[in-house]
Amino acid sequence: MQDTPAETEISFIDVGVSAAGRRIAMRVRRPEKPLGQPTLVWLGGYRSDMTGTKAVEVERYAIERGAACVRFDYSGHGSSGGAFTDGTISRWLEESLAVIDQAAPGRVVLIGSSMGCWIALRAIQELRRRGDGSRVAGLVLIAPAPDFTAELIEPNLTEAERTSLAERGYFEEPSEYSPEPNIFTRALIEDGRANRVLDGTITTGCPVHILQGMRDPDVPYTHALRLMEHLPSDDVVMTLIRDGDHRLSREEDIAKMKQAIGTMLA
Question: pTM of whole model > 0.90?
Fold first, then answer.
């Protein structure tokens, strides 16, 4: 991989009002000579921030291709304000749409990772609802985890976790990616039910490329296959990576991600 370009400066936008207001941090990179390509918008995963390997590589690729790129942190993540435990899919979706409207007002390619894929699918639904669906030129979904609260967490809760949710409003579990435990709140799980996308046909109106590791311990590849079944009217390509894990951050995985993005830009 090439040397990392100079870090893009952080800018902020305010989302929400009064007690629900939070400051969202963004890194927006615009090309010196715009070529009229869609803006690449990175949508990170649960507890991930915009400094992660894949997010930085998306920006690097945008620079190579002469495209604009937007990275940002959801509230409670990275450089953004707000408490992580206040986070829900609805809240992070509101922030994502605000960033897209503010920093990428033209056509976009949405690139989601894990939970970010769920946010991307909901964002397209909301854009289509308000008549802006044609702004999305393509969708790249990496280890997609739509509906993960209802499909992957709730059915596997232990009795102790159910008790903790009822009595404390959250439960914790060890994280493979951080010394701090993952926290899942009752609000996140209840809000997740209201944001389900795997309960009917999903129409994106754009090409979709799914990248999924077959050794993903967090989101089984059968979940990605199920998502594909809910996209019957779209041009969908799926790349199954036989030895790929959930992060898909190896050099060969990054190359596949860039190839998928390049197809959308072309």
Answer: yes
